[in-house]
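**Protein of interest**
===
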Amino acid sequence: MSDLPRKAVTRTAKLATLPLGFAGRATWGLGKRIGGKSAEIVSRELQQRTADQLFKVLGELKGGAMKFGQALSVFESALPEEIAGPYRAALTKLQDAAPPMPTRTVHAVLAERLGEEWRELFLEFEDKPSAAASIGQVHRAVWHDGREVAVKVQYPGAGEALLSDLTQLSRFARLLGPLIPGMDIKPLITELRDRVSEELDYALEAEAQRAHAAEFADDPDVVVPDVVHQGEQVLVTEWMEGVPLAEVISGGTPAQRDRAGQLLARFLFSGPARTGLLHADPHPGNFRLLPPADGEDGGYRLGVLDFGTVDRLPGGLPGIIGEALRMALEGDAQVVYDRLCEEGFVKGSIALDPDGVLEYLLPIIEPTAVEEFTFTRSWMREQATRIGDPRSPAHQLGKQLNLPPAYLLIHRVTLSTIGVLCQLNATVRLRDELESWLPGFLPDPDPEQAPVSEPEPEPVSLEKSAGGVTVEADA
């Protein structure tokens, strides 16, 4: 039934064209240079060809290859500009588009999962997908009660494809690693692989989306469409209009960029506190910028989609994050180091210099030290180079730090969100959001310093002179 390439040998052969294609293009480039073209022109042509092939291969395969492409796309702001330029357009395409499933395949899935009379559930159904992503595509429709809805249909064989692709991509991780300085690609692929079963389970996704929709139902800044119907490989949710965040990145006004960045940071940190869940797929394709609600005077709102990957944090984000961040900003190197050791960020078998650890952290947390911070690609590249350059002390120290498994997804979401903020070039009051939502960031009140409550005084009569007339008033 599926037109998605499913056989491991077929998909492996397609993925193998990435490193093989790179070698072939290098030979082509050498020939062009011998023929008289300048190195700069040849390099630019090579990069464009590589970007075109990356989109073609990952987009055709969908599955885990597509998922990896989406995860990688939020980090393009860390690339040197001469490399990032040709890749940016191709990677951005991966956030919102992919070659669609044939209509007959979509209808077959709907008939199997919703019943042969599935069309009776809809007043209208658009066969042409409005969006396509890593494991499914979305069709616009009108539910039988008149509501506009988004119908998410999972690609047949998506689970097999995800696992196969990510297994193969992990073998190419060393070749892909230089794309993002300072980032180890293999753990990213491993973590994506570990989340496959959750993302394929539309019941879990529906549960997470319902929880967010209920919590943010009356929120003036964040909009989450509710779930209308959920099946095994079909998920129907309310339709949401809005400007895709990718379009804000490419052509939004400064005001739109700043507002989108502020709300993205707010959603990231408030979500776990309000729902016990962390939206763990923060690439631009999952967000929309919406106008103010009808009759409201507020600013743009942030629409949030796709709850297939979430981190379950019943107590909100771990308090150690806020505590360590606050202590780092206060310059208390030893306390920060001790807390990191307690949580397993520094293995017991090694000893590091606390001042060196603090020096390593401070540039990363620079956006939290000021009232507002402008996230830029140049700042992101600076951090990536500082941490990724094997000759730098920061790189050597970073290799000795450990990331406990419980923090893997939180770490990736935070980095991804920072990457999107840099793409937006947004000025954000990040500290405001941390103070409001991050446990431990504000110190607990000192009980010894707390004001002592006193009995409420009895009302007394005060005499006030008003134009020679005495007036009595209770205090």
The two ends are 81 Å apart (CA to CA). The longest strand covers residues 136-143. DSSP finds 19 helices and 16 strands in the chain.
